Amino acid sequence: MLYAPGRYNLNYDISAILLNVIIMIFFLTKKKVRDRRVKLFMSLEFILCVAAAGGLGTALIRNGTIVCSSATKTVVTIIAHYSHNSVGFLILLYLLEILGRLRTMRKAQLFLISVPQMILTVFMFVPGLRHTIFYYDADGNYFHGPMRDWLYYTIVIIYLIIGIIGLMRHKRTLVRKDLYYSLFVAIGFVASMITERVGRYLRACVFLQSLCMLAVYVTIENDDETFDYETGLLSRYSLWKEARFLFDNKRTSYMISVRLQDDNYYDVMLGPDITRGVKRQMTDWMARLMNERVRVFYPGRGTFAIELFNSTKDEAMSVAEKIRQRYEYSWLYKNTPAYYTVQVVVGCIPDVIKTQDQLITFVDNGFDVSLPADQVLFADELMKSEVRKADVERALHRALDNQSFKVYYQPIYDTEEGKIRSCEALVRMIDDELGFVSPEEFIKVAEQTGLVSQIGEIVFEKVCRYLHDVKPQQYGLEFVEVNLSTVQCMDTNLPDRFTEIMQKYGVTADQIDLEITESAVVNDENTMIHVLNRLTDMGFSFALDDFGTGNANYSYIIKYPFCLIKIDKSFLWGSEKNAENATILRNMVNLISELDRLAVVEGVETVGQKEKLIANGVRYLQGYYYSKPVPEDDFTKYIRDFNANTSEEA
Ligand code: C2E
Ligand code: CA
Ligand code: CA
After folding, report:
1. pLDDT digits 0-9 by tens, 145-168
2. Ligand 1 probe mutation, 443, 463, 544, 567, most atoms within 8 A of CB
3. pLDDT in tens, 385-407
4. Strand runs (DSSP E) across 240-390, as ranges?
């Protein structure tokens, strides 16, 4: 009964119904998020089910198994034909959805692509027009109308062409494998239609299309990739794919990064069972924010990402505020309350977040500053500084690769002898892309990225080479100040490497004085003391840099082996503003000399400053009044001329 030669084969339609029902059940039980994409996929599945059932009905009617009135036959045929021929339109919508185009299309465009489907609808449901497609005569025999093939095939071809053009035009939006899968499915649909032309009694078309949908289900709709395993929200991979779309598209969108501050702490404190339960509540709450324009991702690492497509700053800030306010209350699971602190940051695409990489950095919240948790932050300056930091880091790598770091020297004047007896070595980086970058900026980045040790060694070697090649001692130079970063002071290999370099150039430790900035002193004392002791044993002396600006107090001066104390320039400049500051500076100088250390004042720019400091008994002066930091050759000339002239004067 099911199959007889010359009669309609029913097997494929039955299989198609079963297949689609199974896919629908799987799909619905696994997907936690019901967005438009899920709805479209389900509609396609449903319509294929109806088409298969309708096809089965018409085949049974025509096989003569079912006997019924012409009116019933007409209704069954309408269901079969209309559903089957609507697949093209739905496939196009689904394709446009995965390309993200449904979100960006204007109403007029949407209307335009609906026109063929509307024509089909009109022809199908207006009885007079339906006659041009099919009809049953009085005896219940089925007839094709003249418009049937013309209408059905034109509509499907139109939709296919639009679909393929859309795919090719926006292929950058899709990751490559999704692009191939989509093309494969489009071809599968064409092939299925060919089987319909070739074997009239075969009736395999709907089944083949259902197979294509199965392929879509296991590839493009692959749950393991699309959804986060733990929360069921959109995954990190989905976020990555979405980022492609966002940067391919010119619309202003916002991303909200919601980062749980105490994620690890709660994991440990409450145990995995409770935290999972609490997270599930958070997830459900977050999932309720979703709509056509709002998507919620869980990229992992205790961070939610909420995307507001094509929206305004006000909208984004209000969603962010809503989230932040929710976290003021506890999450309750099995009577255990958990208060999570969150950091909510809003970033604008593409104004502030400019690339796919930056988006991921932003969401993961790679900011190294600790942000307050009691307000929503707008990642404007924040992100810009992150971007700048990344740029500077690349410039540092370039400078290391091209060996383009330079060392400039700034003279230090000895007030007792009236001569330049010392100088400070200051590193310089001039990058092809960024131009001059201040060491104040790049040393910080180098410290954070671990590059500062390499840079410090380069500076140290250049100084030794200068002392060896030029021998500025002959012009009266006694020692060079070299800056040591915090990070270098924690490096127990540093003394050995310095020894090697000094041996290579025949330089002795008394020719070099190491400057350590005040904030460095408080870091990790034991390692620091160990390194400093070894350097002292080697014969180095030390200067405490930027004195007065950090956390160090006077006890540090005696605790560590500092000979020179460099008073930060802000004290000199401040002393000119009022009498109190002047008193502070004078007392600092006095205290340093009473402790038997030598004071250096930085930032001397005028003759008035110089005279006052000399009157105060400051031993060394450094500043633009004498010279800015200058290249090696200029410095050699400067010290030679300066010390020669002062000798003549003397
Ligand atoms: P610092 O050690 O306090 O260096 C003194 C800074 O003050 C230098 O800035 C110098 O150019 C500037 N300066 C000196 N006299 C005057 C003055 O009269 N007026 C004004 N307005 N500025 C003056 P520079 O070269 O930009 O260095 C900035 C900081 O970068 C340094 O502060 C130091 O902390 C760091 N740095 C520079 N070179 C190195 C290095 O080789 N290694 C390490 N670790 N840090 C370095
Ligand atoms: Ca210094
Ligand atoms: Ca300083």
Report:
1. 899 888 998 998 899 899 989 888
2. 443
3. 777 888 899 999 999 999 999 99
4. 253-260, 294-300, 303-308, 331-333, 336-338, 342-349, 377-378
Whole-angstrom Cα distance, residue 646 to residue 238? 72
Distance CA 260, CA 258 (A): 7
Question: Is 485's C-beta closer than 6 angstroms to any atom of ligand 1?
Answer: yes
Q: Are strands 303-308 and 294-300 parallel, antiparallel or unpaired?
A: antiparallel
State the amino acid at position 597 in one-letter form: R
Q: Which residue has the higher pLDDT, 650 or 105?
A: 105
For ligand 1, atom 42, the nearest C-alpha belongs to 483
- CA distances (Å), 612 to each of 94, 226, 237, 411, 585, in order? 80, 71, 65, 19, 11
Residue nearest to atom 32 of ligand 1 (CA): 440
Q: How far is the CA of 545 from the centre of ligand 2 (A)?
A: 6
Q: Please tell me the distance between residue 407's alpha carbon and the centre of ligand 1 in angstroms.
A: 12
| 623 alpha carbon – ligand 3 mean position (Å) | 11
Whole-structure pTM value: 0.58
CA distance 130 to 90: 22
Q: Are 467 and 507 in contact (CB under 8 A)?
A: yes
**In this structure, are residues 206 and 45 in contact, taking their beta carbons and an 8 Å threshold?**
no
- Secondary structure of residue 630 in the 3-state scheme: strand
Q: How far apart are the first and last CA of the chain?
A: 125
How far apart are the C-alpha atoms of 50 and 81, rounded to whole Å?
A: 10
